[in-house]
Amino acid sequence: MLRSIATVSISGTLPEKLHAIAAAGYQGVEIFENDLLYYTGTPAEIRQLAADLGLKITLFQPFRDFEGASRAQFAANMARARRKFALMHELGCDTLLLCSNVQPDCSADSELQVADLRALATLAEEEGITIGYEALAWGTHVNRWQQAWERVRRVDSPALGLVLDSFHILARGDTLDGLPSVPVEKITFVQLADAPYMKMDLLEWSRHFRCFPGQGELPLEPFAEQVTRCGYRGPWSLEIFNDGFRASPNGATAKDGYRSLLWLEEQTRRRLPTCDADLFSPPPLPVYHGLEFIEFAASAAEAQRLGQHLQALGFQHEGSHRSKQVTLWRNGGARIVINHQPHSWADHFYQRHGVSLCAMALRVDRSAPIVARARALGYATWQGDAGPNETPIPAICAPDGSLIYLIEAGEGIYERDFHLRDGLTVREDYLGIDHLALGMEADSRDNWVMFFRTVFGFTLEHEQTLPDPYGLVRSLAVRSPQGDIRLALNISQSRATQIARSVACYQGAGLQHAAFACRDLPATCDQLADVARHALPIPANYYDDLLARFGGELDVGQLQRRQLLYDRDPQGGAFLHLYTRPFTAGRFFFELTERRAGYALYGAANAAVRLAAMQYC
């Protein structure tokens, strides 16, 4: 499968874009006309540069507002086409994208449209050019792929085919169910883009909010399956209009785009296991068994203070590392590691970010396949120095430089690596780590989404908008296929929200909070007397509102006495949770949770009161 991307998808000058695209691994590139117009050299120079970089120029685009124009305009359009064909010969490209006409005064007469397209196809055939006709979702008369195909079919020229663009098709709610009726040789080109679901004008949605496959919510997987099943074996090309991508370093963006194509190929291979297409087939995903532990980087003084903070939440000092200044804290199924080893990787992380989450560990059935997946997708892996009789633990580098450790089920790392305290009776207040919430720069979240989607196979949930007293926070959750690992990825465009201040404090992404799951949260609060001292104070007005909404269904007084928050989903599932005060200003805090009757959300209804309460701490 030839992997391609449009130059409009990334930032930079045209030569810079071509270098970034080639470095990311693509074999093809679409040249967007504006990139060429603003280039100070000649099309021939771009042709040579692309050849030197090993890139095939797969498409030149766009050619606009052609069919159904006035007769005076039609003559001008034909002259314009001749000039573009001459430019394409100099550029070394033989395929032109023709967008359906969006002018409000263009003719609705399909006979006239077909006649115009036939004239263009005849000229293109004489020039050795192939035209790919695309139905723009906001086209005046042609805005669905079936309409475009009907006109291509009626023209019946070898020089005119169909372009299938996933955004233009899926954003309108269309499918490719009718594609088997289209001869495969008439599919000229396939363009791919994802997007979050948004209720807004199609043109604005398309021009600003497209993203790479896997980063949005459009059904790209069945789209790719249907295109492949019909026999199409031409380029898969990304065409992404995204304000954030155009403002971000082009190297990282191009790499994420390439990974998105690999991810989509993998999903297609799963759907079509016997297909003859050359599709990316990495090692299979592991079975996940939850978050094994989280690790903080700290100084010696902060490690001591954090340990005292954890003790107040019921954690016990379970042991110390055999060869490093690392301590292990535990309560039931929740474990936390505090690393203050000088001159270590964690120390370097601390020097950059201060006391912070530097690693998390996933329990998996097998680690080697997921390490191989990460490498195949171009992510860095890491393995630290292990002392005698200690466990070498492989890890994958996350976008912020933190580590994702992979621990195989049944591996006794604690007994091997730590001096565990003799005779310790472990408390069993917590079932495990319920979820983590990470704060990050707005323009980096797509990198995180791509990381968790492609390497770990996590799924996306619908984004939530949370009101902070000083702006809005956008929260997007990812979770493992089994649902036992949950991460909330939070961003804010405002500079004054809690998330923005946290990102500034960390000088990058960092832990907002870690949540620990309880069987019975009210009972846990009663058993852990110090929790009340660290609990985030919730205003009485919140509980008055709970009483008004739920009346006698809830013992609101008991919730208020413990500073517990409450949420309920439409299916009747319930969520009780408590937040602690921040460990230190601008950094992380903790949450205790209890899920009832299958509740699978995160208490977003209570985010506003929590964010406001944090301002008063």
From TrEMBL:
<dbReference type="GO" id="GO:0051213">
    <property type="term" value="F:dioxygenase activity"/>
</dbReference>
<feature type="domain" description="VOC">
    <location>
        <begin position="432"/>
        <end position="581"/>
    </location>
</feature>
<feature type="binding site">
    <location>
        <position position="435"/>
    </location>
    <ligand>
        <name>Mg(2+)</name>
    </ligand>
</feature>
<protein>
    <recommendedName>
        <fullName>3-dehydroshikimate dehydratase</fullName>
        <ecNumber>4.2.1.118</ecNumber>
    </recommendedName>
</protein>
<feature type="domain" description="VOC">
    <location>
        <begin position="290"/>
        <end position="409"/>
    </location>
</feature>
<feature type="binding site">
    <location>
        <position position="165"/>
    </location>
    <ligand>
        <name>a divalent metal cation</name>
    </ligand>
</feature>
<dbReference type="InterPro" id="IPR004360">
    <property type="entry name" value="Glyas_Fos-R_dOase_dom"/>
</dbReference>
<feature type="binding site">
    <location>
        <position position="191"/>
    </location>
    <ligand>
        <name>a divalent metal cation</name>
    </ligand>
</feature>
<comment type="pathway">
    <text>Aromatic compound metabolism; 3,4-dihydroxybenzoate biosynthesis.</text>
</comment>
<keyword id="KW-0479">Metal-binding</keyword>
<dbReference type="GO" id="GO:0046279">
    <property type="term" value="P:3,4-dihydroxybenzoate biosynthetic process"/>
</dbReference>
<dbReference type="Pfam" id="PF14696">
    <property type="entry name" value="Glyoxalase_5"/>
</dbReference>
<dbReference type="GO" id="GO:0046565">
    <property type="term" value="F:3-dehydroshikimate dehydratase activity"/>
</dbReference>
<keyword id="KW-0560">Oxidoreductase</keyword>
<feature type="binding site">
    <location>
        <position position="513"/>
    </location>
    <ligand>
        <name>Mg(2+)</name>
    </ligand>
</feature>
<dbReference type="InterPro" id="IPR029068">
    <property type="entry name" value="Glyas_Bleomycin-R_OHBP_Dase"/>
</dbReference>
<dbReference type="InterPro" id="IPR037523">
    <property type="entry name" value="VOC_core"/>
</dbReference>
<dbReference type="Pfam" id="PF01261">
    <property type="entry name" value="AP_endonuc_2"/>
</dbReference>
<dbReference type="InterPro" id="IPR050312">
    <property type="entry name" value="IolE/XylAMocC-like"/>
</dbReference>
<feature type="binding site">
    <location>
        <position position="239"/>
    </location>
    <ligand>
        <name>a divalent metal cation</name>
    </ligand>
</feature>
<dbReference type="Pfam" id="PF00903">
    <property type="entry name" value="Glyoxalase"/>
</dbReference>
<dbReference type="InterPro" id="IPR036237">
    <property type="entry name" value="Xyl_isomerase-like_sf"/>
</dbReference>
<feature type="binding site">
    <location>
        <position position="134"/>
    </location>
    <ligand>
        <name>a divalent metal cation</name>
    </ligand>
</feature>
<keyword id="KW-0456">Lyase</keyword>
<keyword id="KW-0223">Dioxygenase</keyword>
<dbReference type="GO" id="GO:0046872">
    <property type="term" value="F:metal ion binding"/>
</dbReference>
<comment type="similarity">
    <text>Belongs to the bacterial two-domain DSD family.</text>
</comment>
<comment type="function">
    <text>Catalyzes the conversion of 3-dehydroshikimate to protocatechuate (3,4-dihydroxybenzoate), a common intermediate of quinate and shikimate degradation pathways.</text>
</comment>
<dbReference type="InterPro" id="IPR043700">
    <property type="entry name" value="DSD"/>
</dbReference>
<feature type="binding site">
    <location>
        <position position="591"/>
    </location>
    <ligand>
        <name>Mg(2+)</name>
    </ligand>
</feature>
<dbReference type="InterPro" id="IPR013022">
    <property type="entry name" value="Xyl_isomerase-like_TIM-brl"/>
</dbReference>
